[in-house]
Design brief:
- The complex is a heterodimer of chains A (399) and B (262).
- Chain A is α/β, with parallel strands linked by helices.
- Helices cover 42% and strands 18% of the residues of chain A.
- With 262 residues, chain B is an alpha/beta fold.
- Chain B has a nine-stranded parallel β-sheet with strand order 5-4-3-2-1-9-8-7-6.
- In chain B, helix 9 links the parallel strand 7 and strand 8.
- The chains are: A alpha/beta (399), B alpha/beta (262).
- The interface between A and B is large, with 37 and 41 residues.
């Protein structure tokens, strides 16, 4: 991981936590000591050989890495390009989320923290956090919107089975953004012994950078695997879905400074970008401050955060990570808005063509393939961020 | 950061520096048009400073009581624009210093320069924006605040290091807002030995700015304790609960203030 510590280029985070004009640490003074402690220590902790050894060992033996890079032949034939799937759905717990929680729990241990707090939307990050807390024997508290707890009951049960305390966030709209607010409040109230494991590349610096580094194992493996399979390290396109954007940040990381690789981000358009029921942040949002960083967020003219909608709970977030805001703002990334309907169709298509049922979040990335003008000799990698078991009840309504 | 424009907050502390009472309420709560009535009621009840909350959808530093009042105010249609319209002309009757408290995003959308200009125009003296940290404020916005003579009040907490407190003191004007404990608003009951030790530690630092203690100040006892260690205290959630239960009449507000500082 040494190579990713070399970040002296424009898509890397600055010393003060900015990606272009996005990022920073817009936090109340009550959080300053915690965030500052993390900022001062995270790079040296990550670079330490004992951390590196434990991190890579756990990724291999516990998470099941490296995950395969699979040539999807029937999908390729249908889309008219060479398409590889990076199988993050095969990670322990069923999605890429665990790459980050493994990294952060090792950081928390080295900071002497005794308790973990986390937010979760669909429950995937909550499960990944509860999992590593069980593994390491740390207390785990997960905030989840009261409405999401009803919608995602199996994941609530999984977290509880893993020993976590799941607390309903009853403020505001009772979904992911409110769960994030509640987790931040919990951290304010417990500043000394608690570490907050944020689940995406959002939040105050250094979270977006730290989470991106832990997820960067995705693009690191893609490069090696693609080289072995095709003789080239770089695909023409790297495609991923973006809610907060953690799987996309990991999938893009090693290609950020490879201009020949187009970075493609699929956002959730919900019922349509202009329908009033959407989570297409770059299409609908404006620059502002959300959850500790300056980014692009969906908001009213008065600066009140608006409630997003997507069929996929993991993309149902009113902002995006500051790295992605910068990729959008600078034109480095191509952003597509994918409707619920398009995502569902792409999920069914992959299931029938390749025998892989993708998460609804991931289905948005697959649907983006139809929006891109692919050529026959293009090599495309899609980050298959998670598996679709958790979404069966939604899929089954559309069978 | 020293401003040359005279400011009611600085003038207040020059004249009096003991047992000052600052009361917070949310603009547009419980009803949209209550703002001026509550402001007048607080002045008539003898409070020394008034902090008016600009409601926000995601107030992370606030507990349940203030969150709910923010939600009600937003549903009532409150916005920064509406608040400035309500405050226009208030200086014909209101002499008490006014602070606006809120979160940074609505201010950014309104435009920082427009915001400071309107504060100046309607007679707002200072601002508290908890999620605009001092370093970012200094890097981007301090000159605008200075130009319009608007003070930006900063927070310290029991976890703030001495070095950072010195830095905040150096860069502050008006007063320093001492958060009484590691907490969100409205979540603390009483004043613990640990809090007292923190108050004494800060007292001994002989800061150049006066200090007001907030979070957990809800009655006469907590107000008195805070006032022994600082220049006064700030009451928020307890007053919001009172407005909810007893209404916004002058009599109701006077009776509340009597319970804090008879």
């Amino acid at each position: 991981m040494q190579d990713i510590l070399d970040t002296q280029t424009s898509f890397a985070v600055s010393d003060t936590g900015f990606y272009g004009r996005f990022g920073g640490a817009f936090i109340p003074e009550m959080l300053y000591p915690n965030v500052e402690e993390l900022r001062q220590n995270y790079l040296s902790i990550i670079a330490d050989p004992s951390f590196q050894a434990e991190f890579w060992q756990l990724l291999e033996d516990y998470v099941g890495r490296p995950t395969p890079l699979f040539l999807a032949k029937r999908l390729s034939a249908k889309k008219g390009a060479t398409i590889y799937l990076k199988r993050e759905d095969l990670c322990h717990t069923g999605a890429h989320k665990v790459n980050n929680t493994i990294g952060q729990i090792l950081v928390a241990q080295r900071l002497g923290k005794k308790r973990i707090v986390a937010e979760t939307g669909a429950g995937q990050h909550g499960v990944a956090t509860a999992t590593v807390c069980a593994l390491m024997g740390l207390e785990c508290i997960v905030y989840m919107g009261a409405i999401d707890m009803e919608r995602q009951k199996p994941n609530v049960d999984r977290m509880r089975m893993l020993g976590a305390t799941v607390i309903p966030a009853k403020s505001g709209s009772q979904t992911l953004k409110d769960a994030t607010n509640e987790a931040m409040r919990h951290w304010i109230n417990n500043p000394v012994d608690t570490h907050y494991i944020i689940g995406s590349v959002v939040g105050p610096h250094p979270y977006p950078d730290m989470v991106a580094r832990f997820q960067s194992v995705i693009s690191q493996e893609v490069r090696q695997q693609l080289l072995a399979k095709t003789g080239r390290e770089n695909p023409d396109y790297m495609v991923a879905c973006v809610g907060g954007g953690s799987n996309a940040a990991g999938a893009f990381f090693h290609f950020l400074h490879e201009p020949s690789v187009r970075l493609v981000a699929a956002e959730a358009a919900g019922m349509g970008v202009s329908s009033g029921h959407s989570a297409a942040t770059t299409a609908l949002g404006k620059p502002g401050v959300l959850h500790g960083s300056r980014t692009i967020l969906m908001q009213t003219d008065d600066g009140q955060v608006t409630e997003p909608y997507s069929i996929s709970a993991g993309l149902d977030y009113p902002g995006i990570g500051p790295l992605h805001a910068h990729l959008f703002d600078s034109g480095r990334g191509d952003f597509y808005a994918i409707t619920d309907e398009e995502a569902l169709a792409a999920g069914f298509e992959l299931s029938k063509l390749e025998g892989i049922i993708p998460a609804l979040e991931t289905a948005h990335a697959l649907a983006a393939l139809d929006k891109m003008s692919l050529k026959a000799n293009d090599v495309v990698v899609v980050c298959l961020s998670g598996r679709g078991d958790k979404d069966l009840s939604t899929y089954s309504k559309h069978l | 950061m020293t401003t040359t424009i005279p400011n009611r907050i600085s003038t207040l502390f020059e004249q009096r520096n003991k047992r000052l009472l600052n009361v917070y309420f949310t603009a547009g709560f419980p009803h949209l048009d209550d703002t001026r009535m509550v402001l007048r009621g607080l002045q008539d009840a003898g409070v020394d400073l008034v902090e008016i909350g600009m409601p926000y959808s995601d107030p992370v530093a606030d507990g349940e009581t203030i969150q709910q009042s923010n939600g009600v105010a937003l549903e009532n249609g409150m916005s920064i624009k509406t608040l400035f319209a309500q405050l226009a002309g208030c200086r014909e009757e209101i002499t008490v210093p006014i602070l606006l408290m809120g979160y940074v995003n609505p201010v950014l959308q309104y435009g920082v320069e427009n915001f400071c200009r309107m504060c100046r125009q309607v007679g707002v003296d200072g601002v508290i924006l908890p999620d605009l940290p001092l370093d970012l404020f200094l890097a981007e916005y301090a000159p605008i605040f200075r130009e319009y003579g608007i003070l930006n009040v900063h927070l310290i907490t029991p976890q703030t290091t001495d070095a950072r407190i010195r830095f905040i003191d150096q860069e502050s004007d008006g007063f320093i807002y001492m958060v009484s404990s590691a907490s969100i608003t409205g979540s603390v009951k009483g004043i613990s030995d640990g809090m007292r030790a923190y108050f004494e530690r800060i007292e001994a630092m002989n800061l150049r700015n006066p200090r007001l203690i907030g979070f957990g100040i809800s009655d006469q006892e907590t107000f008195n304790t805070a006032s022994q260690h600082a220049n006064g205290a700030i009451v928020g959630s307890a007053f919001i609960r009172h407005l909810q239960d007893h209404g916004t009449s002058a009599e109701s507000i006077r009776s509340f203030v009597q319970t804090i500082r008879p």
